TrEMBL record:
Top-level taxonomic group: Bacteria
Catalytic reaction annotation: (3S)-3-hydroxy-3-methylglutaryl-CoA = acetoacetate + acetyl-CoA
PANTHER family found in the cross-reference section: HYDROXYMETHYLGLUTARYL-COA LYASE
Gene3D superfamilies documented for this protein: Aldolase class I
Protein name per Swiss-Prot or TrEMBL: hydroxymethylglutaryl-CoA lyase
Residues covered by the Pyruvate carboxyltransferase domain: 7-274
Family recorded in the similarity comment: Belongs to the HMG-CoA lyase family.
Species the sequence originates in: Gilvimarinus xylanilyticus
InterPro entries: Aldolase_TIM, HMG_CoA_lyase_AS, HMGL, PYR_CT
Top-level class of the enzyme under EC nomenclature: lyase
Source lineage: Bacteria, Pseudomonadati, Pseudomonadota, Gammaproteobacteria, Cellvibrionales
UniProt record, GO biological process: ketone body biosynthetic process; L-leucine catabolic process
């Protein structure tokens, strides 16, 4: 077994983490969180989404977020952009990178995007062309790679086809999302075994939810298969508003603790991320689900 010597962490808390929170989160609190995460050493931060505020009201102030960030050199601030209009909004306020999101399930694509997988890819091709024209890096997400809330099991071959289509249109990396957190070590292995037959490991990332408490195990399996990019969310914030029972993303703090134990470099200060997670949880008046953060912050000096 050869593990990666270094892992890149993509912090999705300010977008994927906060978008499903009820109520209104103040702009100042969002900016404070982003600044704290950058100060902790995270260099890839998903800061907002340019989507219809009717469907994702928590992201309605993404323009203000991007224009309000005190940008740290070496940090890439990205945005989710489901269509050309969203891309133009993101470009106008200085997003360093944009992302598009398809699904590995026809049922989920219809429920989440109101179109088939094929139709969604046609729409994303417009964003891809614009990103190439303006030389803005484009990342691709695939939802429901290990299970769909509407149709159940998802065949790895369908995920592979979607991933290849996104790569061909210009995505530099594909993030594989276990949106409802039903994945296991066995299903993660089967998925990656299928994809890695045709796609290089450095083109893939994993984005695990922890609904059944399997996220860290699935990430460890991914590391063993050469995956060196992991999406995480500070304090395990987030969930999928379209997937019943989908609890938060895997906590950044827990993944950092795992990587530290494996002596895998990542460049992030765990204690600072833990404090940032504790602060945003206090703001949101919610319990911090990160076991590593709770343990670290409750240690006796």
């Amino acid at each position: 077994m050869v593990l990666p010597s270094r892992v890149s962490i993509v912090e999705v808390g300010p977008r994927d983490g906060l978008q499903n929170e009820p109520g209104k989160i103040a702009l100042a609190d969002k900016l404070t969180l982003i600044h704290q995460l950058a100060d902790a050493g995270l260099t890839r931060i998903e800061a907002g989404a340019f989507v219809n505020p009717k469907w994702v009201p928590q992201m309605a102030d993404s323009e203000a977020v991007f224009t309000g960030i005190n940008r740290r050199p070496g940090v890439r601030y990205s945005a989710l952009t489901p269509n050309l209009k969203g891309f133009e909004r993101a470009r106008a306020c200085g997003a360093d990178e944009v992302a598009i999101f398809a699904a590995a399930s026809e049922a989920f694509s219809q429920k989440n995007l109101n179109c088939s997988i094929e139709q969604s890819l046609e729409k994303f091709a417009e964003v891809a062309r614009a990103a190439r024209e303006h030389q803005i890096p484009l990342r691709g997400y695939i939802s429901c790679v290990l299970g769909c809330p509407y149709s159940g099991r998802v065949e790895p071959e369908l995920c592979r086809d979607v991933a290849q289509a996104l790569l061909e249109m210009g995505c530099y990396e594909i993030s594989l999302g276990d949106t409802i957190g039903t994945g296991t070590v066995a299903s993660t292995h089967a998925l990656l075994d299928n994809l890695l037959a045709d796609i290089k490991a450095d083109k893939l990332a994993v984005h695990m939810h922890d609904t059944y408490g399997q996220a860290l195990a699935n990430i460890y399996q991914s590391l063993q298969m050469g995956i060196a990019t992991i999406d995480t969310s500070v304090a395990g914030l987030g969930g999928c508003p379209y997937a019943r029972g989908a609890s938060g993303n895997v906590a950044t703090e827990d993944v950092l603790y795992l990587l530290n134990g494996l002596n895998i470099a990542h460049g992030v200060e765990l204690d600072k991320v833990a404090r940032a997670g504790a602060a945003i949880c206090k703001t949101l008046n919610k319990t911090n689900p990160s076991r590593a953060a709770v343990a670290l912050l409750n240690q006796t000096p």
